[in-house]
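Suppose a colleague, Dr. K., hands you the sequence of a protein chain of 501 amino acids and asks what its three-dimensional shape might be. Before reaching for any lab equipment, you can write down a predicted structure in token form. Begin with the sequence itself:
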Amino acid sequence: MSGNGIEVRGVTKRFPGVVANADVNITIRPATVHALIGENGAGKSTLMKILYGVQRPDEGTISIDGKPVSFSSPTDAIRAGIGMVFQHFMLADNLTVLENVVLGAERLYGIGDRAREEIERISDTYGFALEPDTLVEELGVGERQRVEILKVLYRGAQIIILDEPTAVLVPQEVDSLFANLRELRSSGHTLLFISHKLDEVLAIADDITVMRRGRTVGEADPATTTKRALAELMVGSELPSPQTEESTVTDTVLLSLVDVNLVDLRGRHLLRDINVSIHRGEILGIAGVEGNGQAELVESIMGMRKATGSITLAGQSLAEWGTRERREAGIGFIPEDRHRHGLLLDAPLWENRMLGHQTRAPSSRNGLIDQGATKADTERIVRDYDVRTPSVGTRARALSGGNQQKLIVGREMSGDPILLIASHPTRGVDVGAQAAIWDHIKRARREGLAVLLISADLDELIGLSDRIDVILRGELVGEFDPQDVTPQQLGTAMTGGRESA
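The predicted structure, expressed as tokens, is then:
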């Protein structure tokens, strides 16, 4: 199979007040893995949406195999052989692999034996090891990723865009994914790989393009470049490290969970016999494959779910307290899904400053919203946390993911918390925003906060945490010392395996 090369020439895309892409030029060789890297707001997402037909460029041209193309919708891009695998999986848990793959593409092979044969052929050809009749809810995260890739291959994609494909995978799953990608490349597919994880980019890419502030600013050869050189191209500074300084752990327990259990309506244990304590000045990391009880643990502490057992904050039982009372008692919360639980996307930044803090100064005075004080404090957060925005009246939706996250971190650190729950605090943010968020978490630790850190980034967990607990199927199955554990050892524990002696 030949062809599948892409030429992007002079592509420019403007939005009101923002130039998202400015004279972008990229050459993607056929049958290669081409990595696209850059900080949040660099223009990667806009360019991908243009390639996939979601947006149309204001200027410039795109050619595939030397032929100019113009897409009005993703349907046009799919017809041209382009598929996109999004960072957030678009799968129905209550459907089988076959049903998820066929959904919306019934005209290709029907919904019966022909469809099954094609799915099995693709799965066998590229080493996906997927059974068509398995329910998606029974699959691990790595397997779900493969279903998403299978979906685009089923629709005939020869060019595949992968947006942060390793964000929620453990090291062993990353290795498996990369083996699948190399198989696809060897069969003639062209892969566009978007990531913030520079070590993975260097491991899988044939070519690297760096974007900054809407422009392509450099190209790199993975064989001769380094993570430091790529970071400097991306953000003009060295690669940050999550490493904490000397221990600040005290003897004072701020959060205590004793025999905490959570059962769903069908009687299934979502959490089983959780016993945890976090001290003032301590970061406790929780490692686990997504969907193993991390979200339920956080929601139980926040009062969003009714768990049994004892949860105390600074010696006070939270049993009768709702979420608002827990927030007012000093729990800061950086949620896993910033769009769902952290922001009102169509509200201005100053209104987002109030979320979860609306009953306290500066958001309210004498029971009424204090708009002036809230706006002034939002301006302080924008300044102190380097939130890049035209004004505090800008809608949250207009900010890049990294700037949205820095706003949330600033808001939560501004409420004088005694406990900070940080759930995937740097997911999907660039190295510059990542370094800033790490610094704020380290500062919280130095100032005596207790921090519960949940992250799929194992280097982040190891670098920031004083202790790491592993959660598997709702149970804590092991505690590790960050000083001597490796990502591979954590990955093994997270997937229920054992280290060979």
